[in-house]
């Protein structure tokens, strides 16, 4: 059966919930998904590589991309810009490949406006206490930034209503398996399979 367009998957949720951890583990298992590397003005953390973890840009370079309409979405998050460049995502979807975005909530809502057919997955922590522990234990933030991220998290969790799926990231393996099942299930959606069959039948008859 010929795949038409790829599916756009959006994984979002509060900072520190485990989006990056879930995404990396998912990509170790599911090589068919294409990951869209984000652009950011945040300085690289130790061990982060330009073009692998993020495309690290200056504020001017980022604003230039925005002005030239080259971003699908972007957000100003805890003092820095983060965003998804348009070209890569569009090209992969057009080639029939599934694309996976891992982005914060403001950006996900913008994607929803432009790609309403996207599949929106919201990752939540088992509790706010656990979320705080995860942000602290990661050790990448100052005390003030931990407070900022937790304050943002409370507002972000209220946006759950805009999502198609909600996954609790309690045990990492279970959360990854659940996201993987969502990806598989979306490929079995009746509308999607029916369209592909119809097209294949039409080709057969002509
Ligand atoms: N809107 C948007 N958010 C992004 C993008 N890339 C990463 N983010 C989010 O920006 C937030 C901060 O990312 P980062 O500084 O790497 O910290 P961490 O994810 O909390 O480790 C996280 O919630 C990311 O998921 C993007 O392209 N667009
Ligand atoms: N299911 C989980 N159980 C315990 N710790 C987790 C789990 N998922 C992620 N973590 C830890 O929580 C911290 C934040 O995870 P990270 O993937 O950086 O979050 P995000 O990308 O959402 O900001 C990291 O130290 C990570 O190892």
From TrEMBL:
The keyword Chaperone belongs to this UniProt entry's keyword annotation: no
Its EC number(s): 2.7.4.8
Reactions it catalyzes: GMP + ATP = GDP + ADP
Binding residues annotated for ATP, in chain numbering: 13-20
Record flagged with keyword Lipid metabolism: no
SMART domains: GuKc (SM00072)
Domain of life: Bacteria
Family, similarity comment: Belongs to the guanylate kinase family.
Protein name in the entry: Guanylate kinase
Species of origin: Pontibacillus yanchengensis Y32
Gene: gmk
């Amino acid at each position: 059966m010929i795949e038409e367009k790829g599916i756009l998957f959006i994984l979002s949720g509060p900072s520190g919930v485990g989006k990056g951890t879930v995404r990396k583990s998912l990509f170790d298992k599911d090589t068919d998904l294409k990951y869209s590397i984000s652009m950011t003005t945040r300085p690289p953390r130790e061990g982060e590589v330009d073009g692998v973890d993020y495309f690290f840009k200056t504020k001017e370079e980022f604003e230039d991309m925005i002005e030239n309409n080259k971003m699908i979405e972007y957000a100003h998050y805890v003092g820095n810009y983060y965003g998804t460049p348009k070209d890569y995502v569009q090209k992969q979807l057009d080639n029939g490949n599934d694309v996976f975005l891992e982005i914060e909530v403001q950006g996900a809502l913008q994607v929803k406006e432009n790609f309403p057919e996207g599949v929106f997955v919201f990752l939540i922590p088992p509790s706010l206490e656990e979320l705080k522990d995860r942000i602290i234990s990661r050790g990448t933030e100052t005390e003030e930034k931990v407070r900022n991220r937790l304050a943002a998290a409370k507002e972000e969790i209220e946006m759950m209503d805009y999502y198609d799926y909600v996954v609790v990231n309690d045990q990492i393996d279970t959360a990854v398996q659940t996201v993987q099942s969502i990806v598989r299930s979306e490929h079995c959606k009746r509308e999607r399979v029916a369209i592909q069959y119809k097209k294949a039948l039409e080709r057969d008859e002509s």
